[in-house]
From TrEMBL:
GO molecular function: ligase activity
Record flagged with keyword Ligase: yes
Subunit structure: Monomer.
Record has Membrane as a keyword: no
This enzyme's EC code(s): 6.1.1.19
Location(s) in or outside the cell: Cytoplasm
Protein's recorded name: Arginine--tRNA ligase
Length: 594
């Protein structure tokens, strides 16, 4: 289905044409169109143009108005103030535009990007044998939304879950498991992913603590553990098999959390740090041969003019340690080579905690110097996110100061949401099964939305009371907006949604319609700036415009002529589809009855 040209784009086009006609020597000029409260749009571009052409702005504006071809798009254009244009559209143009969007049930008339490329996105990257924390939740939630949004714009997206599955700590863990072979066995034989996930994590936790204690107290164990690291790096089969058990066990746990989060993570997309082991030597060789990295006190280092420690001495990026070992940077540099040269990425996006920004700054700059990245067709971007804070404004921890277990946190959100859903359930006639399902969608949606509705770089407070509130900028407010429309559509009986372009529109209908028309442009902006919070803001605005519309316009009223009922049903149905689409892109469900 052909994309729908937005009203803004059409108005823009006509004004630009009129501007060039009025002042041919100016070339192509931007009329600087804005949504406005006084009319539908205001154009401010004439002021700057008049200044450049040394013309009187009001006179130029009047000439432009005379040249604009109104057709059936523009109802009124008037010159205002020092030379602005106030532009009002015809009601018919708005309705026809929305009808074209409505006919495209899948994309709502939204075009794909002009020149889509390939983006590799690195997100949802917990660490093997370690509990996930709220930071991993943020990476997963933001990353998943960006994946959906980019795919919707036509981008080819490759997902990479860069899990922490390599490092010296595995020597200790593997050695311990070798000496205590049954420590990772599952006692219960359950089909329930959540339950086996929890069991997996508690096994890993227990084993981690026990091996750590032994490592710290028993010198001989320490020696055996260190030797085990060497075996692991040398690829000894028995050692690798045990290492694999840790990875597999951890995946059971990760999947249980992702499933609870209602999020798809696919196995082939999990390429952890170990996945780049074969490339490390070559990465170092390339960097050293090209002079990008130099040996310093035995270590292979990259230096930067603007990266200095507190003592004023340069802090290098260490690609290879003096003992020959590779760390986080070597892996990330190898991953860049893989993503650029094998996966053919044009863009690399890393959804990672802002506290790792210096690391990525140095890694990206190193890759640029090596010629693996540039500033034009192969670029990298860290979508950095801030810290999750507790209600007290301090980093989110349990009262005992431990990391909050994600399952507990999600369970609590779901519990609270279920209470909210249950309160209204009788009136809506929900079955117990629906209450439980909606409780999940509302609870998980609340957690995701709270994360996605603030700009990612900012810290945000994890406040469940606020998150499941029915009023304000919350997912459940949006979910109710959607469900209420479905309820109206069910109550409509014989009346079906249908566009009637001949009808006059009330102000609240125009406002709603003009915002619906903006969906594609908002998405395009969100996709280029990687700012899902702007999509959340768009949807929230849509829901508030809908509330105003209900206040001012009855949909199913006996006093309304049939066409008005049909046209309003059509308007709310398009609103519902837009909400559904937009929320879906954020990874949030919209139950039909709530
Ligand atoms: N596993 C890391 C952590 O938990 C995040 C990995 C980020 N991605 C990367 N390519 N370094 O902090």
């Amino acid at each position: 289905m052909a994309p729908v040209t937005s009203l803004t784009a059409s108005v823009h086009q006509r004004l630009a044409t009129a501007l060039s006609a009025a002042l041919p020597e100016a070339g192509s000029v931007d009329p600087l169109l804005r949504r406005s409260d006084r009319a539908d749009f205001q154009a401010n571009g004439i002021l700057a143009l008049a200044k450049k052409a040394k013309a009187n702005p009001r006179e130029l504006a009047t000439q432009v108005v005379a040249k604009v071809e109104s057709g059936d798009l523009l109802k009124e254009i008037e010159v205002s103030g020092p030379g602005f244009l106030n532009i009002t559209l015809t009601d018919g143009a708005i309705t026809r535009n929305l009808a074209a969007r409505y006919a495209d049930a899948d994309r709502l008339g939204v075009a794909t990007a002009d020149d889509p490329g390939t983006t590799v996105i690195d997100y949802a990257q917990p660490n093997v044998a370690k509990e996930m924390h709220v930071g991993h939740l943020r990476s997963a939630v933001i990353g998943d939304a960006v994946v959906q949004i980019l795919e919707f714009t036509g981008e080819t997206v490759v997902r990479r879950h860069h899990i922490g599955d390599w490092g010296t700590q595995f020597g200790m863990l593997i050695q311990y498991l070798l000496e205590h072979p049954h420590e990772l066995d599952h006692k219960s034989d359950t089909e329930d992913t959540a339950a086996s996930g929890e069991e997996a994590m508690s096994n890993l936790n227990r084993l981690y603590k026990a091996s750590r204690a032994l490592f710290d107290s028993d010198e001989e164990f320490k020696t055996r553990a260190r030797r085990r690291v060497v075996d692991l790096q040398a690829g000894d089969p028995e050692t690798l098999a045990l290492w694999q058990r840790f990875v597999d066990e951890s995946k059971i746990y990760f999947y249980s959390v992702f499933e609870k989060l209602d999020m798809e993570v696919r196995d082939p997309d999990i390429v952890g740090e170990s996945g780049y082991n074969d490339m490390l030597d070559e990465t170092c060789r390339l960097l050293e041969e090209s002079g990008v990295a130099v040996r310093s006190e035995g270590a292979l280092c990259v230096f930067f003019d603007d990266v200095k420690g507190p003592d004023g001495n340069p802090v290098p990026l260490i690609v290879q340690k003096s003992d020959g070992g590779y760390g986080y940077a070597a892996t990330d540099l190898s991953a860049i080579r893989d993503r650029v040269f094998n996966l053919k990425a044009n863009t690399l996006v890393y959804v990672v905690d802002a506290r790792q920004s210096l690391h990525f700054k140095m890694v990206f700059e190193t890759a640029r110097r090596a010629g693996w990245l540039n500033d034009e067709d192969v670029t990298a971007y860290q979508l950095a996110f801030g810290t999750v804070l507790g209600k007290d404004g301090k980093p989110f921890k349990t009262r005992e100061g431990e990391t909050v277990r994600l399952q507990d946190l999600l369970d609590e959100a779901i519990d609270r949401a279920t209470t909210v859903v249950r309160e209204k359930a009788e009136k809506v006639g929900l079955s117990e099964r629906e209450i439980v399902e909606n409780g999940r969608y509302v609870g998980v949606g609340a957690v995701k939305y709270a994360d996605l509705s603030t700009s990612a770089v900012r810290d945000y407070k994890f406040d469940l009371d606020q998150m499941v509130s029915l009023n304000g900028d919350t997912s459940v407010y949006l979910q109710y907006a959607y469900a209420r429309i479905q309820s109206i559509l069910r109550k409509a009986g014989e009346a079906r949604p249908a566009a009637h372009a001949e009808l006059e529109l009330a102000p609240a209908e125009r406002a709603l319609g003009l915002h619906l028309d903006q969906f594609g442009e908002s998405l395009a902006e969100v996709a280029t700036s990687y700012e899902p919070h702007k999509l959340a803001a768009y949807l929230y605005k849509l829901a508030t415009l809908l509330t105003t519309f209900y206040d001012q316009c009855q949909v199913l009223s006996d006093d309304n002529p049939t066409e008005v009922v049909e046209n309003r049903l059509f308007l709310v149905d398009l609103t519902a589809r837009t909400l559904h689409r937009g929320m879906g892109l954020l990874g949030i469900r919209t139950p039909e009855r709530l």
